[in-house]
């Protein structure tokens, strides 16, 4: 029979392990989520208030939430912004029940987890930026976004790419839409991108 001390020690080991492998819960701003957000994690993350991700490295983004209705299908959209004052660019994210099964067919009052791996880009080429610029977002009307995008391209015309620098703040807006195009999650986060050691 196990003593209370051994049970407590085993329990603490399991909790410590789960916290270690689970990534770092990060600070975020809710921008209109209809679901209850439980936590948001980025793994690896060195500072929950200002994560620094390494260029070219693999990372994982996870969000645990409680939807108000059953999710039968979904879309995930992320917009990234290098520094402040520049337009946001669409970033590819895993979507659909076939890809991320932990989100779909969750009953009312049960928790769901959206989890997706991604590679931190070394740079954003102007061709990449043109290809993924969103046609519209809830925050910017089309004309303002297009104008800002053209100004950014003209300003950066001399360079073929925008290099992600450690001094550049990276803002991210993550949106999860259900099968009816209703907003399940809308989260804003920020961090930095660093060079490999």
Automatic annotation (TrEMBL):
Keywords: Signal. Residues 26-125 form the MD-2-related lipid-recognition domain. This is MD-2-related lipid-recognition domain-containing protein. The lineage of its organism: Eukaryota, Metazoa, Ecdysozoa, Nematoda, Enoplea. Pfam families: E1_DerP2_DerF2 (PF02221). InterPro entries: Ig_E-set, ML_dom. Residues 1-23 form the signal peptide. It comes from Trichuris suis (pig whipworm).
